[in-house]
Amino acid sequence: MTMLTDTVKSRVKALSTRAPAVFGLTALYEPSAHFTFSRKVRKDFDELARQYTRWTLLLGKYGGRPAMQTDIQGIGVASRLEIGRLVLRERDQQPQLASAFGMFRACQDHSLASGPIDRILTYVPRADENAPRRETLRRAFHSTFGKECAFLAIDRDQLEIGHCVAYQSLVQFLREDGLYHSAHRGRIEKLQRHLQQEVGRYENLRFFVRPTAVHGRIPELAICYTGMEANQMAEAYVQEYTGEMALFVTGEHVEAERERYVELEDYERASRRFGGLCVLQHDVVRHLSSAQVSTLYLFFDEQGQPEVDRSFAWQELFERQRHCEHISLGTRNSGTSLSVALQALERKRFIAVDGDEVRLAPGFEQFQQVSFYQLGEFRRRHG
Q1: What's the CATH number for 19-148?
Q2: Per-residue pLDDT tens for 196-247?
Q3: Domain residue limits, the chain
Q4: To pair with 310 at 20 to 30 A between CA atoms, which of 136, 232, 252, 286?
Q5: Is the pLDDT at 5 greater than 70, yes or no?
Q6: What does the alpha-carbon distance between residue 108 and residue 84 come to, in Å, rounded to a whole number?
Q7: What CATH number has the domain spanning 280-367?
Q8: What is the pLDDT of residues 120-150, one digit of tens each?
């Protein structure tokens, strides 16, 4: 039997006391009908991959060597690049991740992928509850791309990197007492349909809405547009076909007071009272189904205030569900539906369970209603 020296034993012991961090990163590129993963492209990619290889002693996507694959999407080809990282020391995490992001960007800049980066997925054990790892990912992304990012929790170990646009607090959405009100949805949808039908007429114009809060009433909404100069012909067409009076504002004014002006699509999304909902919890975006959103109303009092300091028994929540107008008629008397919704809300950290009692999670009043955009989608919308 080979005897280990004291030096080797001490190094092995030092490594065993640390918790190695395993990162799996995947970049999905926009498809292209003109891209070919030719012999020259493969040769150039292999040379670049050798510069970014960090051996991990693992297999597959965690192997440390970048691997490029292609997928057929419609009439085009889309590239997928996978890189794994095994980091033993915490101080090395950000440089290692930044090198992986650098590989993603280098393939894009040197035309070794099918197109610009469309999505980035990360695989980190228990990523949805590990704030330090997410902060490391955020710093590495910012150092490489020069932009802030947000994380969408897909499951416990998988996050997607993107950008989010915040609208209002979750409490304001549930009470519908913020700037985004469903009463204006008809006006917004009518204007959107007209703009889509007359694309050429408004080619150089951008339309916004400017909501204004009115105490105790539905917020007022003004339709605005920007361009090189005021376009009286466009204003006349908008008024004739939609009944809306469009106001001209300069682009400089919109940028100076950007928080007051909302794009039509963003207002339409934020004012929806159907479907799921994206919520920003501290630094993670999670998606709630319509049934889970409805269950949150059980934790509000008769005045529409969240009872954040109160704990509820399951039976009390069930009685509230039977008389809650926000719960669909088909599930109001279903205890199974309530249990499934509560389990999902606990898993997504909207409620906390202590024995037989349930309460809203700490910081619930700070949760924000947002829209999450994938990297490519955000770039196409906002440039």
Answers
A1: 3.30.70
A2: 998 888 988 999 999 999 988 999 999 999 999 999 999 999 999 999 999 9
A3: 19-148, 181-272, 280-367
A4: 286
A5: no
A6: 19
A7: 1.10.10.10
A8: 999 988 888 888 889 999 999 999 999 999 9
